[in-house]
Amino acid sequence: MGELAPVYSTEKAVGIVLGTGNIGTRLTDNDSQKSLYLSRDGGLSWRSIAPGVYIYEIGDHGALIVIAKKNTPTDKI
Question: What is the pTM of this model?
Fold first, then answer.
């Protein structure tokens, strides 16, 4: 299986969690079926925010979330 960005949170952005995954009984190896998910309640509920596999960072106590396609050069955030 390809390496995924981990589920990520920071103590400075209480309740915000980002993670890569898919809907189903198990995690798929197919990156085209994965999405980036966001939780604003500490992982109790999740919302898909972007299809595909991303790298990400949380800043300014959760007021800023930066994502970029994994393994794809970009000049925009």
Answer: 0.84
Count up the domains in the chain and report the number: 1
The torsion angle over the Cα atoms of residues 16, 21, 23 and 28, rounded to 10 degrees, is: -170
How far is it, in rounded angstroms, from Cα 52 to Cα 31?
A: 6
Distance CA 17, CA 43 (A): 6
Residue 75 lies in a domain: no
**Domain contains 1:** no
CB 77 within 8 A of CB 66: yes
pLDDT band at 37 (very low <50, low <70, confident <90, very high): very high
Cα–Cα distance, 11 to 27 (Å, whole number): 27
Question: Is the residue at 34 inside a domain?
Answer: yes
